[in-house]
Protein backbone atom coordinates (compact mmCIF):
# COMPACT_ATOMS: atom_id res chain seq x y z
CA UNK A 1 0.00 0.00 0.00
CA UNK A 2 2.77 2.43 0.98
CA UNK A 3 4.82 1.56 -2.09
CA UNK A 4 1.85 2.14 -4.40
CA UNK A 5 0.94 5.43 -2.74
CA UNK A 6 4.51 6.72 -3.10
CA UNK A 7 4.73 5.77 -6.74
CA UNK A 8 1.34 7.28 -7.57
CA UNK A 9 2.34 10.46 -5.74
CA UNK A 10 5.60 10.75 -7.68
CA UNK A 11 4.00 10.02 -11.05
CA UNK A 12 1.15 12.47 -10.46
CA UNK A 13 3.70 15.13 -9.56
CA UNK A 14 5.72 14.46 -12.71
CA UNK A 15 2.58 14.73 -14.85
CA UNK A 16 1.70 18.07 -13.24
CA UNK A 17 5.24 19.37 -13.83
CA UNK A 18 5.14 18.34 -17.49
CA UNK A 19 1.75 20.04 -17.89
CA UNK A 20 3.12 23.21 -16.26
CA UNK A 21 6.10 23.24 -18.59
CA UNK A 22 3.86 22.81 -21.62
CA UNK A 23 1.66 25.65 -20.45
CA UNK A 24 4.74 27.81 -20.06
CA UNK A 25 4.44 28.78 -23.69
CA UNK A 26 6.65 29.08 -26.72
CA UNK A 27 9.40 30.99 -24.92
CA UNK A 28 10.11 28.09 -22.58
CA UNK A 29 10.05 25.64 -25.49
CA UNK A 30 12.46 27.77 -27.49
CA UNK A 31 14.87 27.93 -24.57
CA UNK A 32 14.67 24.17 -24.14
CA UNK A 33 15.27 23.67 -27.85
CA UNK A 34 18.60 25.48 -27.63
CA UNK A 35 19.96 23.00 -25.08
CA UNK A 36 22.53 20.70 -26.64
CA UNK A 37 21.32 17.07 -26.58
CA UNK A 38 23.00 14.84 -24.02
CA UNK A 39 23.77 11.11 -24.20
CA UNK A 40 21.04 9.14 -22.40
CA UNK A 41 23.16 8.36 -19.33
CA UNK A 42 24.03 12.03 -18.83
CA UNK A 43 20.47 13.08 -19.55
CA UNK A 44 19.30 10.78 -16.76
CA UNK A 45 21.61 12.54 -14.30
CA UNK A 46 20.31 15.91 -15.43
CA UNK A 47 16.69 14.79 -15.13
CA UNK A 48 17.15 13.72 -11.51
CA UNK A 49 18.84 16.98 -10.53
CA UNK A 50 16.34 19.11 -12.44
CA UNK A 51 13.36 17.47 -10.77
CA UNK A 52 14.77 17.61 -7.23
CA UNK A 53 16.03 21.20 -7.66
CA UNK A 54 12.83 22.54 -9.21
CA UNK A 55 11.31 25.63 -7.57
CA UNK A 56 8.13 23.64 -6.92
CA UNK A 57 9.99 21.53 -4.32
CA UNK A 58 10.84 24.71 -2.37
CA UNK A 59 14.28 23.57 -1.25
CA UNK A 60 13.25 20.13 0.12
CA UNK A 61 13.36 21.11 3.78
CA UNK A 62 13.13 18.13 6.13
CA UNK A 63 9.60 17.66 7.42
CA UNK A 64 7.99 19.63 4.59
CA UNK A 65 5.42 18.31 2.09
CA UNK A 66 7.90 19.12 -0.68
CA UNK A 67 10.50 16.84 0.93
CA UNK A 68 7.86 14.11 0.92
CA UNK A 69 7.41 14.64 -2.83
CA UNK A 70 11.18 14.40 -3.35
CA UNK A 71 11.20 11.22 -1.25
CA UNK A 72 8.41 9.74 -3.39
CA UNK A 73 10.41 10.53 -6.52
CA UNK A 74 13.51 8.81 -5.15
CA UNK A 75 11.49 5.73 -4.16
CA UNK A 76 10.01 5.55 -7.66
CA UNK A 77 13.45 5.78 -9.24
CA UNK A 78 14.81 3.12 -6.87
CA UNK A 79 12.06 0.74 -7.92
CA UNK A 80 12.78 1.53 -11.56
CA UNK A 81 16.44 0.59 -10.90
CA UNK A 82 15.39 -2.83 -9.65
CA UNK A 83 15.77 -2.22 -5.92
CA UNK A 84 13.33 -3.53 -3.34
CA UNK A 85 11.94 -1.51 -0.43
CA UNK A 86 13.96 -1.83 2.78
CA UNK A 87 12.39 0.73 5.08
CA UNK A 88 9.83 0.24 7.85
CA UNK A 89 7.50 -2.75 7.47
CA UNK A 90 8.46 -3.52 3.90
CA UNK A 91 8.03 0.05 2.63
CA UNK A 92 10.53 2.45 1.09
CA UNK A 93 10.33 4.85 4.05
CA UNK A 94 11.98 4.78 7.44
CA UNK A 95 9.99 7.34 9.39
CA UNK A 96 12.19 9.69 11.41
CA UNK A 97 10.31 11.37 14.29
CA UNK A 98 11.61 14.89 14.77
CA UNK A 99 11.35 17.73 17.24
CA UNK A 100 12.15 21.27 16.10
CA UNK A 101 12.52 24.48 18.08
CA UNK A 102 12.74 28.14 17.16
CA UNK A 103 14.45 30.48 19.64
CA UNK A 104 12.38 33.37 20.96
CA UNK A 105 13.58 35.76 23.67
CA UNK A 106 16.81 34.94 25.46
CA UNK A 107 18.65 36.66 28.31
CA UNK A 108 21.90 36.05 30.16
CA UNK A 109 23.55 37.57 33.21
CA UNK A 110 26.62 37.16 35.39
CA UNK A 111 26.69 37.51 39.17
CA UNK A 112 29.97 38.02 41.02
CA UNK A 113 30.37 39.12 44.64
CA UNK A 114 26.67 40.03 44.83
CA UNK A 115 26.73 42.27 41.75
CA UNK A 116 24.80 41.22 38.62
CA UNK A 117 25.81 42.23 35.11
CA UNK A 118 23.63 41.53 32.06
CA UNK A 119 25.12 40.20 28.84
CA UNK A 120 24.01 41.84 25.61
CA UNK A 121 22.17 39.51 23.24
CA UNK A 122 23.72 39.42 19.78
CA UNK A 123 26.90 41.12 20.97
CA UNK A 124 28.08 39.23 24.06
CA UNK A 125 26.14 36.03 23.53
CA UNK A 126 23.51 34.23 21.50
CA UNK A 127 21.20 31.69 23.11
CA UNK A 128 20.26 28.33 21.66
CA UNK A 129 16.69 27.07 21.35
CA UNK A 130 15.73 24.23 23.66
CA UNK A 131 14.19 21.13 22.13
CA UNK A 132 12.71 20.03 25.46
CA UNK A 133 11.66 23.11 27.44
CA UNK A 134 9.63 25.98 26.02
CA UNK A 135 10.78 28.17 28.91
CA UNK A 136 14.23 27.11 30.12
CA UNK A 137 16.38 28.75 32.79
CA UNK A 138 19.75 27.34 33.81
CA UNK A 139 21.80 28.97 36.55
CA UNK A 140 25.08 27.80 38.03
CA UNK A 141 28.69 28.46 38.83
CA UNK A 142 30.91 28.53 35.75
CA UNK A 143 33.98 26.36 35.29
CA UNK A 144 36.28 26.88 32.32
CA UNK A 145 37.47 23.55 30.86
CA UNK A 146 39.71 24.72 28.03
CA UNK A 147 38.70 22.98 24.83
CA UNK A 148 36.54 20.50 26.74
CA UNK A 149 38.50 17.49 25.44
CA UNK A 150 39.12 14.15 27.14
CA UNK A 151 41.28 11.75 25.11
CA UNK A 152 42.90 8.98 27.20
CA UNK A 153 44.81 7.64 24.18
CA UNK A 154 46.79 10.88 24.02
CA UNK A 155 46.85 11.70 27.71
CA UNK A 156 44.62 14.75 27.23
CA UNK A 157 42.06 15.62 29.93
CA UNK A 158 40.89 19.21 30.03
CA UNK A 159 38.69 18.31 33.03
CA UNK A 160 41.60 17.11 35.17
CA UNK A 161 41.25 18.61 38.63
CA UNK A 162 37.90 20.27 37.81
CA UNK A 163 34.57 19.58 39.51
CA UNK A 164 31.83 20.44 37.04
CA UNK A 165 29.00 18.43 38.59
CA UNK A 166 25.94 20.67 38.83
CA UNK A 167 27.82 23.55 37.21
CA UNK A 168 27.92 25.27 33.83
CA UNK A 169 30.96 24.41 31.73
CA UNK A 170 32.54 27.02 29.44
CA UNK A 171 34.75 25.73 26.62
CA UNK A 172 36.50 27.16 23.60
CA UNK A 173 35.22 26.40 20.13
CA UNK A 174 37.41 23.98 18.19
CA UNK A 175 39.97 21.36 19.15
CA UNK A 176 43.27 21.62 21.01
CA UNK A 177 46.51 22.08 19.07
CA UNK A 178 48.63 19.18 17.96
CA UNK A 179 45.88 16.77 16.88
CA UNK A 180 45.33 15.16 13.49
CA UNK A 181 42.86 17.30 11.55
CA UNK A 182 40.07 14.70 11.63
CA UNK A 183 40.59 13.99 15.34
CA UNK A 184 40.59 17.74 15.99
CA UNK A 185 37.37 18.04 13.97
CA UNK A 186 35.82 15.30 16.12
CA UNK A 187 36.74 16.98 19.39
CA UNK A 188 35.80 20.36 17.99
CA UNK A 189 32.26 19.12 17.36
CA UNK A 190 29.80 20.76 19.77
CA UNK A 191 27.85 17.55 20.28
CA UNK A 192 31.00 15.73 21.38
CA UNK A 193 31.95 18.52 23.78
CA UNK A 194 28.42 18.51 25.22
CA UNK A 195 28.49 14.72 25.70
CA UNK A 196 31.82 14.90 27.53
CA UNK A 197 30.48 17.65 29.80
CA UNK A 198 27.20 15.82 30.38
CA UNK A 199 28.94 12.63 31.46
CA UNK A 200 30.65 14.69 34.17
CA UNK A 201 27.38 16.06 35.52
CA UNK A 202 27.44 19.54 33.98
CA UNK A 203 24.02 21.20 33.92
CA UNK A 204 24.86 23.18 30.79
CA UNK A 205 27.65 24.14 28.40
CA UNK A 206 28.56 27.39 26.64
CA UNK A 207 30.98 27.83 23.74
CA UNK A 208 33.46 30.70 23.65
CA UNK A 209 34.65 32.33 20.43
CA UNK A 210 38.19 31.11 19.72
CA UNK A 211 40.98 31.90 17.29
CA UNK A 212 40.09 28.80 15.25
CA UNK A 213 36.43 29.73 14.84
CA UNK A 214 37.25 33.38 14.04
CA UNK A 215 39.40 32.21 11.15
CA UNK A 216 36.25 30.80 9.54
CA UNK A 217 33.24 32.61 11.03
CA UNK A 218 32.91 35.98 12.73
CA UNK A 219 30.55 36.26 15.68
CA UNK A 220 27.68 37.78 13.66
CA UNK A 221 27.74 34.61 11.53
CA UNK A 222 27.52 32.51 14.70
CA UNK A 223 24.61 34.64 15.90
CA UNK A 224 22.82 34.11 12.60
CA UNK A 225 23.34 30.34 12.75
CA UNK A 226 22.27 29.99 16.39
CA UNK A 227 19.26 32.24 15.88
CA UNK A 228 17.73 29.77 13.43
CA UNK A 229 15.64 26.69 14.25
CA UNK A 230 17.17 23.62 15.89
CA UNK A 231 16.12 20.05 15.20
CA UNK A 232 16.80 16.52 16.40
CA UNK A 233 15.26 13.10 16.23
CA UNK A 234 13.22 11.91 19.15
CA UNK A 235 12.51 8.38 20.32
CA UNK A 236 10.89 7.48 23.65
CA UNK A 237 13.49 6.34 26.16
CA UNK A 238 16.35 6.65 23.67
CA UNK A 239 17.78 10.17 23.54
CA UNK A 240 20.21 11.02 20.76
CA UNK A 241 22.89 11.81 23.30
CA UNK A 242 23.50 12.38 26.98
CA UNK A 243 25.08 15.76 26.42
CA UNK A 244 24.78 18.80 28.65
CA UNK A 245 22.29 21.37 27.28
CA UNK A 246 23.96 23.75 24.86
CA UNK A 247 23.00 27.09 26.36
CA UNK A 248 24.84 29.78 24.42
CA UNK A 249 27.74 30.90 22.29
CA UNK A 250 29.89 33.63 23.84
CA UNK A 251 31.82 36.26 21.88
CA UNK A 252 35.25 37.61 22.78
CA UNK A 253 33.51 40.66 24.27
CA UNK A 254 31.26 38.40 26.33
CA UNK A 255 34.22 36.27 27.40
CA UNK A 256 36.02 39.36 28.72
CA UNK A 257 33.01 39.94 31.01
CA UNK A 258 32.75 36.25 31.94
CA UNK A 259 36.43 36.08 32.98
CA UNK A 260 36.61 39.55 34.58
CA UNK A 261 38.31 39.42 38.01
CA UNK A 262 38.51 35.64 37.63
CA UNK A 263 41.38 33.44 38.86
CA UNK A 264 41.74 32.47 35.18
CA UNK A 265 42.74 35.54 33.17
CA UNK A 266 40.97 35.88 29.82
CA UNK A 267 44.00 37.58 28.28
CA UNK A 268 46.15 34.53 29.10
CA UNK A 269 43.53 32.20 27.63
CA UNK A 270 43.17 34.29 24.47
CA UNK A 271 46.92 34.56 23.86
CA UNK A 272 47.56 30.85 24.50
CA UNK A 273 44.71 29.90 22.20
CA UNK A 274 46.01 32.16 19.42
CA UNK A 275 49.52 30.71 19.86
CA UNK A 276 48.10 27.15 19.80
CA UNK A 277 49.43 26.43 23.26
CA UNK A 278 47.70 24.80 26.27
CA UNK A 279 45.24 27.16 27.93
CA UNK A 280 44.76 27.61 31.69
CA UNK A 281 41.55 26.18 33.19
CA UNK A 282 39.61 26.48 36.43
CA UNK A 283 36.55 27.78 38.24
CA UNK A 284 35.80 31.38 37.27
CA UNK A 285 34.22 32.52 40.53
CA UNK A 286 31.07 33.69 38.78
CA UNK A 287 27.47 32.48 38.57
CA UNK A 288 25.80 32.66 35.18
CA UNK A 289 22.11 32.58 34.40
CA UNK A 290 20.79 31.74 30.93
CA UNK A 291 17.05 32.02 30.20
CA UNK A 292 15.62 31.02 26.84
CA UNK A 293 12.10 30.83 25.47
CA UNK A 294 11.54 28.51 22.50
CA UNK A 295 8.71 27.52 20.21
CA UNK A 296 8.73 23.71 19.98
CA UNK A 297 6.95 21.55 17.40
CA UNK A 298 6.90 17.83 16.59
CA UNK A 299 7.03 16.57 13.01
CA UNK A 300 8.21 13.64 10.93
CA UNK A 301 10.34 13.12 7.86
CA UNK A 302 11.65 9.99 6.18
CA UNK A 303 14.80 8.24 5.06
CA UNK A 304 14.25 6.34 1.80
CA UNK A 305 15.83 2.88 1.73
CA UNK A 306 16.26 0.55 -1.25
CA UNK A 307 17.98 -2.83 -1.26
CA UNK A 308 19.87 -4.84 -3.84
CA UNK A 309 20.09 -8.45 -2.68
CA UNK A 310 23.56 -10.00 -2.77
CA UNK A 311 24.31 -13.20 -4.67
CA UNK A 312 26.57 -15.03 -2.20
CA UNK A 313 24.63 -17.09 0.38
CA UNK A 314 27.46 -16.57 2.88
CA UNK A 315 27.69 -12.78 2.37
CA UNK A 316 24.23 -11.58 1.31
CA UNK A 317 23.32 -10.83 4.91
CA UNK A 318 26.10 -8.23 5.06
CA UNK A 319 25.45 -4.75 3.70
CA UNK A 320 27.45 -2.00 2.02
CA UNK A 321 25.50 1.24 2.41
CA UNK A 322 25.51 4.09 -0.12
CA UNK A 323 24.23 7.34 1.35
CA UNK A 324 23.32 10.80 0.08
CA UNK A 325 21.17 13.40 1.78
CA UNK A 326 17.93 14.36 0.09
CA UNK A 327 17.03 17.43 2.14
CA UNK A 328 18.18 21.01 1.66
CA UNK A 329 17.50 24.26 3.54
CA UNK A 330 14.13 25.29 2.10
CA UNK A 331 13.02 28.87 1.56
CA UNK A 332 15.03 31.75 3.03
CA UNK A 333 15.56 35.46 2.58
CA UNK A 334 15.29 36.67 -1.04
CA UNK A 335 18.50 37.21 -2.99
CA UNK A 336 17.89 39.18 -6.18
CA UNK A 337 14.22 38.35 -5.82
CA UNK A 338 14.74 34.58 -5.37
CA UNK A 339 14.13 33.03 -1.95
CA UNK A 340 14.14 29.31 -2.85
CA UNK A 341 17.34 27.45 -1.99
CA UNK A 342 17.03 24.77 -4.67
CA UNK A 343 20.03 22.68 -3.61
CA UNK A 344 20.97 21.44 -7.08
CA UNK A 345 24.56 20.66 -6.21
CA UNK A 346 23.76 20.29 -2.51
CA UNK A 347 22.63 17.57 -2.73
CA UNK A 348 20.40 16.73 -5.67
CA UNK A 349 23.64 15.87 -7.45
CA UNK A 350 24.63 13.38 -4.75
CA UNK A 351 21.19 11.74 -4.93
CA UNK A 352 21.42 11.57 -8.74
CA UNK A 353 24.84 9.91 -8.47
CA UNK A 354 23.48 7.33 -6.04
CA UNK A 355 20.43 6.58 -8.22
CA UNK A 356 22.55 6.14 -11.32
CA UNK A 357 24.92 3.83 -9.42
CA UNK A 358 21.87 1.73 -8.56
CA UNK A 359 20.84 1.67 -12.20
CA UNK A 360 24.37 0.60 -13.19
CA UNK A 361 24.02 -2.46 -10.94
CA UNK A 362 20.73 -3.28 -12.67
CA UNK A 363 22.26 -2.90 -16.11
CA UNK A 364 25.28 -5.02 -15.17
CA UNK A 365 23.00 -8.01 -14.63
CA UNK A 366 25.03 -9.94 -12.07
CA UNK A 367 24.48 -8.66 -8.51
CA UNK A 368 27.43 -8.28 -6.13
CA UNK A 369 28.21 -10.85 -3.45
CA UNK A 370 27.14 -8.68 -0.52
CA UNK A 371 23.83 -6.86 -0.42
CA UNK A 372 23.67 -3.10 -0.96
CA UNK A 373 21.49 -0.50 0.71
CA UNK A 374 20.82 2.77 -1.11
CA UNK A 375 19.89 5.30 1.55
CA UNK A 376 18.56 8.80 0.84
CA UNK A 377 18.70 10.44 4.26
CA UNK A 378 16.73 13.37 5.61
CA UNK A 379 17.70 16.29 7.86
CA UNK A 380 21.40 16.33 7.06
CA UNK A 381 21.30 20.10 6.96
CA UNK A 382 19.95 20.11 10.53
CA UNK A 383 22.92 18.14 11.87
CA UNK A 384 23.20 14.69 10.22
CA UNK A 385 19.93 13.74 11.90
CA UNK A 386 18.50 11.26 9.39
CA UNK A 387 21.76 9.36 8.97
CA UNK A 388 22.33 9.31 12.73
CA UNK A 389 18.85 7.86 13.19
CA UNK A 390 19.42 5.17 10.58
CA UNK A 391 22.90 4.27 11.83
CA UNK A 392 21.51 3.83 15.36
CA UNK A 393 18.24 2.15 14.37
CA UNK A 394 18.84 0.49 10.99
CA UNK A 395 16.19 -1.51 9.16
CA UNK A 396 18.66 -4.41 8.88
CA UNK A 397 20.56 -6.04 11.77
CA UNK A 398 22.97 -3.42 13.06
CA UNK A 399 26.05 -5.62 13.00
CA UNK A 400 25.43 -6.53 9.37
CA UNK A 401 26.45 -3.09 8.01
CA UNK A 402 30.09 -3.38 6.93
CA UNK A 403 30.76 -0.04 5.19
CA UNK A 404 29.23 3.29 4.21
CA UNK A 405 30.09 5.33 1.13
CA UNK A 406 28.62 8.82 1.23
CA UNK A 407 28.10 11.43 -1.49
CA UNK A 408 27.57 15.02 -0.39
CA UNK A 409 27.63 18.00 -2.73
CA UNK A 410 30.02 16.82 -5.43
CA UNK A 411 30.73 20.00 -7.38
CA UNK A 412 30.26 18.95 -10.98
CA UNK A 413 31.12 22.08 -12.94
CA UNK A 414 34.54 20.93 -14.19
CA UNK A 415 36.45 17.91 -15.43
CA UNK A 416 37.91 16.61 -12.20
CA UNK A 417 41.41 15.12 -12.16
CA UNK A 418 41.42 13.65 -8.66
CA UNK A 419 39.06 12.72 -5.85
CA UNK A 420 38.93 13.37 -2.13
CA UNK A 421 37.60 10.81 0.33
CA UNK A 422 37.19 11.95 3.92
CA UNK A 423 38.21 9.02 6.12
CA UNK A 424 39.97 7.06 3.38
CA UNK A 425 43.21 6.78 5.31
CA UNK A 426 41.48 5.23 8.33
CA UNK A 427 40.32 1.90 6.97
CA UNK A 428 40.86 -0.68 4.24
CA UNK A 429 38.38 1.28 2.09
CA UNK A 430 41.16 3.74 1.24
CA UNK A 431 43.37 1.37 -0.79
CA UNK A 432 40.32 -0.06 -2.56
CA UNK A 433 39.19 3.43 -3.57
CA UNK A 434 42.71 4.41 -4.66
CA UNK A 435 42.82 1.35 -6.95
CA UNK A 436 39.37 2.10 -8.40
CA UNK A 437 40.34 5.74 -8.98
CA UNK A 438 43.66 4.82 -10.59
CA UNK A 439 41.88 2.56 -13.07
CA UNK A 440 39.87 5.64 -14.09
CA UNK A 441 42.97 7.80 -14.49
CA UNK A 442 42.35 9.61 -11.21
CA UNK A 443 44.41 10.02 -8.08
CA UNK A 444 43.19 9.96 -4.50
CA UNK A 445 44.18 13.22 -2.80
CA UNK A 446 44.22 14.18 0.89
CA UNK A 447 41.72 16.62 2.37
CA UNK A 448 42.74 20.01 0.92
CA UNK A 449 40.89 22.03 3.57
CA UNK A 450 41.09 20.24 6.95
CA UNK A 451 40.17 23.48 8.73
CA UNK A 452 36.62 23.06 7.36
CA UNK A 453 36.13 19.90 9.49
CA UNK A 454 34.37 18.12 6.64
CA UNK A 455 35.04 14.73 8.22
CA UNK A 456 32.45 15.41 10.94
CA UNK A 457 30.05 17.38 8.72
CA UNK A 458 28.91 14.65 6.34
CA UNK A 459 26.60 11.68 6.82
CA UNK A 460 29.30 9.01 6.79
CA UNK A 461 30.31 10.30 10.25
CA UNK A 462 27.05 8.91 11.66
CA UNK A 463 28.21 5.43 10.63
CA UNK A 464 31.75 6.06 11.89
CA UNK A 465 30.23 6.70 15.33
CA UNK A 466 28.61 3.26 15.17
CA UNK A 467 31.96 1.58 14.45
CA UNK A 468 31.44 1.19 10.67
CA UNK A 469 34.38 1.94 8.31
CA UNK A 470 33.13 4.80 6.15
CA UNK A 471 34.17 7.43 3.62
CA UNK A 472 32.61 10.48 2.00
CA UNK A 473 33.70 11.09 -1.59
CA UNK A 474 34.07 14.39 -3.41
CA UNK A 475 35.72 15.70 -6.56
CA UNK A 476 39.27 16.91 -6.00
CA UNK A 477 41.01 20.26 -6.24
CA UNK A 478 43.69 19.44 -8.83
CA UNK A 479 43.72 21.35 -12.11
CA UNK A 480 40.59 23.52 -12.30
CA UNK A 481 39.11 21.97 -9.16
CA UNK A 482 40.27 24.46 -6.55
CA UNK A 483 39.03 27.51 -8.45
CA UNK A 484 35.71 25.83 -9.32
CA UNK A 485 35.16 24.72 -5.74
CA UNK A 486 35.99 28.15 -4.35
CA UNK A 487 33.66 29.79 -6.86
CA UNK A 488 30.77 27.55 -5.82
CA UNK A 489 31.40 27.90 -2.07
CA UNK A 490 31.81 31.68 -2.27
CA UNK A 491 28.84 32.41 -4.54
CA UNK A 492 26.34 29.55 -4.45
CA UNK A 493 26.66 27.38 -1.32
CA UNK A 494 23.36 27.58 0.61
CA UNK A 495 22.16 30.28 -1.76
CA UNK A 496 19.21 30.41 -4.17
CA UNK A 497 21.75 30.40 -7.02
CA UNK A 498 22.52 26.72 -6.36
CA UNK A 499 20.10 25.82 -9.13
CA UNK A 500 19.98 24.53 -12.70
CA UNK A 501 21.56 27.72 -14.05
CA UNK A 502 24.98 26.54 -12.82
CA UNK A 503 27.40 25.41 -15.57
CA UNK A 504 27.07 21.67 -14.96
CA UNK A 505 29.52 19.29 -16.60
CA UNK A 506 27.20 16.31 -17.07
CA UNK A 507 29.94 14.08 -18.46
CA UNK A 508 31.90 14.57 -15.24
CA UNK A 509 28.76 13.98 -13.20
CA UNK A 510 28.22 10.66 -14.95
CA UNK A 511 31.86 9.73 -14.42
CA UNK A 512 31.52 10.49 -10.71
CA UNK A 513 28.41 8.30 -10.43
CA UNK A 514 30.19 5.39 -12.11
CA UNK A 515 33.16 5.80 -9.77
CA UNK A 516 30.71 5.38 -6.91
CA UNK A 517 29.26 2.28 -8.58
CA UNK A 518 32.69 0.70 -9.10
CA UNK A 519 33.76 1.36 -5.51
CA UNK A 520 30.52 -0.14 -4.18
CA UNK A 521 31.03 -3.18 -6.41
CA UNK A 522 34.56 -3.72 -5.11
CA UNK A 523 33.53 -3.34 -1.47
CA UNK A 524 30.58 -5.68 -1.91
CA UNK A 525 32.67 -8.34 -3.68
CA UNK A 526 35.91 -8.03 -1.69
CA UNK A 527 37.05 -8.68 1.87
CA UNK A 528 35.01 -7.13 4.65
CA UNK A 529 36.27 -3.55 5.23
CA UNK A 530 38.22 -3.08 8.45
CA UNK A 531 39.63 -0.19 10.43
CA UNK A 532 43.36 0.29 10.23
CA UNK A 533 45.17 -1.09 13.24
CA UNK A 534 45.24 1.48 16.04
CA UNK A 535 43.04 3.94 14.21
CA UNK A 536 41.57 6.56 16.52
CA UNK A 537 37.96 6.23 15.38
CA UNK A 538 38.08 2.47 15.07
CA UNK A 539 39.32 2.22 18.64
CA UNK A 540 37.02 4.93 20.01
CA UNK A 541 33.79 3.53 18.59
CA UNK A 542 34.43 -0.16 18.95
CA UNK A 543 35.00 -1.10 15.34
CA UNK A 544 36.91 -4.26 14.49
CA UNK A 545 40.44 -3.21 13.48
CA UNK A 546 42.47 -5.04 10.87
CA UNK A 547 45.17 -7.34 12.14
TrEMBL record:
Molecular functions (GO terms): metalloexopeptidase activity
Q: Which part of the chain is the Peptidase M28 domain? A: 303-517
Which SUPFAM superfamilies did the record assign? Answer: PA domain (SSF52025), Zn-dependent exopeptidases (SSF53187)
Q: GO biological process annotations for this chain's record?
A: proteolysis
InterPro entries recorded: M28_fam, PA_dom_sf, Peptidase_M28
Q: Which PANTHER family does the record associate with it?
A: METALLOPEPTIDASE M28 FAMILY MEMBER (PTHR12147), PEPTIDASE M28 DOMAIN-CONTAINING PROTEIN (PTHR12147:SF26)
Protein name (database record): Peptidase M28 domain-containing protein
- What organism is the protein native to? Sphingomonas spermidinifaciens
Amino acid sequence: MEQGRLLRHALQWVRRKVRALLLGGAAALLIAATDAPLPPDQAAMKAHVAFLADDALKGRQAGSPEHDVAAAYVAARMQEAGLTPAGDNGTWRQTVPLVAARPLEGTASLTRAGATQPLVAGTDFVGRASLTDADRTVEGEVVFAGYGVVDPTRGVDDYRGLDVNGRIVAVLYGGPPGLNSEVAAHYGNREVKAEIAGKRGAKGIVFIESAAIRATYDFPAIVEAWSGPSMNWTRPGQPRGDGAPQLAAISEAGAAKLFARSPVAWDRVRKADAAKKPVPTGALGVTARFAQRSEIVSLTSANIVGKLEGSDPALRNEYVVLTAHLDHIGVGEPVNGDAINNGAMDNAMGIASMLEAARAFRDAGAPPKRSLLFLAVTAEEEGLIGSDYYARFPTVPKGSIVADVNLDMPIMTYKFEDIIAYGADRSSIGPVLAKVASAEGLKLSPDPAPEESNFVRTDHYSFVKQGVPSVSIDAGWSGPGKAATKDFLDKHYHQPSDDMKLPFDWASARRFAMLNYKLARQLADGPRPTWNKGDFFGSLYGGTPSQ
